Amino acid sequence: MVGVDCRFRELVWPEVEDLLVETVDIVGDSVRAEASSRRDDVTCPDCESAGARVHSRYRRRLADRPLDGRRVVLRLLVRRFFCDNTRCRRRTHVE
Fold first, then answer.
1. pLDDT per residue as tens digits for the range 51-89
2. pTM, rounded to two decimals
3. 94, 64, 59, 93: which is closest to 77 by C-alpha?
4. Where are the domains positioned within the chain?
5. What is the SS3 string spanning the chain?
6. Comparing C-alpha atoms, which of 18, 15, 9 is closest to residue 67?
7. How far apart (Å, rounded) are the C-alpha atoms in residues 44 and 16?
């Protein structure tokens, strides 16, 4: 799957770093991909502290530009992280 991941990512989202494309399927008139982040930690947008404790996960469904005349749908697994900086007002943030 690593080969498919690299080729698909470079073709469709070359500017996105740390993206792991888990599956790619053609369903009817659309290309459906499931992906998640490869990062171990993310930076809080308020205090810029790195955090690695995951609060929760959920899937977002995003539509992208057509590929070979087919609609592209991305199901992205998104993680919400705790901000462990006690001086930061933000308790959680999304990657």
1. 899 999 999 987 777 777 888 888 889 999 999 999 999
2. 0.70
3. 59
4. 2-94
5. CHHHHHHHHHHHCCCCCCEEEEEEEEECCEEEEEEEECCCCEECCCCCCEECCEEEEEEEEEEEEEECCEEEEEEEEEEEEECCCCCCCCCEEEC
6. 9
7. 19
